[in-house]
TrEMBL record, chains A, B:
EC number: 1.1.1.85
Name of the gene: leuB
Keywords of the record: Amino-acid biosynthesis, Branched-chain amino acid biosynthesis, Cytoplasm, Leucine biosynthesis, Magnesium, Manganese, Metal-binding, NAD, Oxidoreductase
Positions annotated to bind Mg(2+): 212, 236, 240
InterPro entries cross-referenced by the UniProt entry: ICDH/IPMDH (IPR050501), IsoCit/isopropylmalate_DH_CS (IPR019818), IsoPropMal-DH-like_dom (IPR024084), LeuB_actb (IPR023698)
The protein, known as: 3-isopropylmalate dehydrogenase
Organism: Lentzea sokolovensis
Subunit structure of this chain's protein: Homodimer.
Residues annotated for substrate binding in this entry: 87, 97, 121, 212
Annotated binding of NAD(+), by residue: 272-284
Annotated PROSITE patterns: IDH_IMDH
Cited NCBIfam families: PRK03437.1
HAMAP family: LeuB_type2
Length: 345, 345
């Protein structure tokens, strides 16, 4: 297993160290190459993602990323030039974001139901296409545009993936989230594709919700969701909210996946570089560890993935959530649990 | 006071009847003209918003709208052809949406702080501009676009309005919500305008949050928000979420305002036509009643607006939230409270 690791900025390197500690317990032979992409490299060399590095990354089975972003870098530079560029160049069309309320974890909701959903967020088009511009900048007649690009090809492949996932889950329920009543063109495409693909999945029940209504249900009735399929921007918004109601982005893992396997998929915690707590050794590495589980699942190492998930579940059920311990201590606990092959449930 | 009233579809007419009952207590001389726009008219005549009706609406001091939308009408027809057309034709650039957790109201949050925010949502541009299209429809090469249009003119006027509102509030705090790290063009325009206008408001402290992070804080720390200014789509999403954490859209009022007063402003509950409960007389008219208070404020009738708000606050603090009563009964209670000039706080 050849893995490329991009620790990145802020708490990125801190949580990645623990994720690799845990990975070492299940795949000791993993070959790991580190890439120092991120704010520091940009400051030092002006480089974000050199072609040669991109070429090297392509030679790996998967990529593990910590976080990119730093207050010293103008907004958008690292996001568009590095993180989104990786997602687009490597055709990460399925942005997979499970949200599960683990036993023992405190939700900000008063009366949380069982929550176990997975959001399939489109990852390579929509409002993230980078298509837009400024006209008459800095004049009273300035115009800024952002174009959401949605293709039949791009929508269909994630909708198919979402249905396949729904088919394999117990509840077999899929919710399309969009804003079809306002974004009528893109909404029409998404709705038609979901309708067509649903014909091939009579086992999956399908629902539709406008994105605004979905945010309401995410706090009043999140247990209703099983698989959600949605566009890049709505997925960005909904998955942060889903993470919040299931205990916070400190626990939320994600996979940026090319499910055709033509390119390596990239796994990363949903949280950012959190510059406010960077360097203090107090970041929770759980999301990074769970991202390793998603990575292993993607590479077919399901048994190892289950071991990591079970260890996280055990730790979350038993940890003192007021003081869960230092970053390294959580990593040590999880590594020990994985090595002792703890099982839950 | 000449008011145009559009009861609309579903529970619209039911909640509007109660809102007018309450209005009658404070402005008995209001001249009211009803317009039967909505699903029924569209089915009967194919008309959504005839020019002649639009011309008549313009002759009023303000418009009160119940809700539009019906499952029998394809998604987008009434929304784009009636509701959004009204907002755009009447230049409702300030979409004002207060969200306050009233004493006695149960939030879905476990430990809700004091919540008292107002969202200034841009109302006439952004992704709502209706600019987009379909190419090669129903082929494997279909493309759907949605263009977010943002102008210096359009952004500046709502940002100015939001700063003015923040200046008049106790906490004098304003949060710009956008997604500047991805939507870099529109994000740049919004950020620059907020920065410029802030120079004229040294009394207002300014914060920025990405929309995804804002949904997290809306459930983990909603007390932080005072005034939020944001674009049309982010505002749509955030205000439903803000309504949810403050007790639900059954309580959320809104104003679609042309603050230049060249066109009549339009006030409406944030909730929709709720076809599932329409005709049963069980819809909560509180949001419609609070929309009347916003309407009166806009027309300078502040004393009457405060009377209505105080009555709603009193009713919410004392009502049995399990069975708040029928639509008409809540209306009767609120009307009686307003006529007895109840005061709270
Ligand atoms: C950092 C940012 C570009 C990114 C996104 O918007 O996708 C992040 O919010 C995420 O969800 O992974
Ligand atoms: C019905 C719909 C067009 C509308 C909107 O998106 O603005 C509604 O959600 C709202 O918030 O008033």
């Amino acid at each position: 297993m050849r893995l490329a690791v991009i620790p990145g900025d802020g708490i990125g390197p801190e949580v990645i160290a623990e994720a690799l500690k845990v990975l070492g317990e299940v795949v000791p032979a993993a070959e790991i190459t580190r890439y120092d992409l991120g704010a520091a490299r940009w400051h030092a060399t002006g480089e974000l993602l050199p072609e040669s590095v991109l070429g090297e990354l392509r030679q790996h089975d998967a990529i593990l990323l910590g976080a990119v972003g730093d207050p010293s870098v103008p907004s958008g530079i690292l996001e568009r030039g590095l993180l989104l560029r990786l997602r687009f160049e490597l055709d990460h069309h399925v942005n997979l974001r499970p949200a599960r309320l683990y036993p023992g974890v405190r939700s900000p909701l008063a009366d949380p139901p069982e929550i176990d959903m997975v959001v399939v967020r489109e990852g390579t088009e929509g409002p993230y296409a980078g298509n837009g511009g400024l006209l008459r900048k800095d004049t009273p007649h300035e115009i800024a545009t952002e174009v959401s690009l949605n293709t039949s090809f791009g929508v269909e492949r994630v909708v198919r993936d979402a249905f396949a996932r729904a088919s394999n889950r117990q509840r077999r329920h899929l919710t399309l989230v969009h804003k079809t009543n306002v974004l009528t063109h893109a909404g029409s495409l998404w709705s038609r594709v979901v309708e067509e693909v649903s014909l091939q999945h009579p086992d999956v029940t399908v629902a539709y919700q406008h994105v605004d209504a979905a945010t309401i249900h995410m706090v009043t009735d999140p247990g209703r969701y099983d698989v959600i399929v949605t566009d890049n921007l709505f997925g960005d918004i909904l998955t942060d909210l889903a993470a919040a109601v299931t205990g916070g982005i400190g626990l939320a893992a994600s996979g940026n996946m090319d499910v055709t396997r033509r390119n390596p998929s990239m796994f990363e915690p949903v949280h950012g570089s959190a510059p406010d707590i960077a360097g203090q050794g107090i970041a929770d590495p759980t999301a990074a560890v769970l991202s390793v589980a998603l990575l292993l699942d993607h590479l077919g190492e399901h048994e190892s993935a289950r071991r990591i998930e079970a260890s996280v579940a055990f730790d979350l059920a038993t940890r003192d959530h007021q003081s869960p311990g230092a970053t390294y201590a959580i990593g040590d606990r999880l590594a020990a649990l994985v090595s002792s092959n703890v099982r839950t449930g």
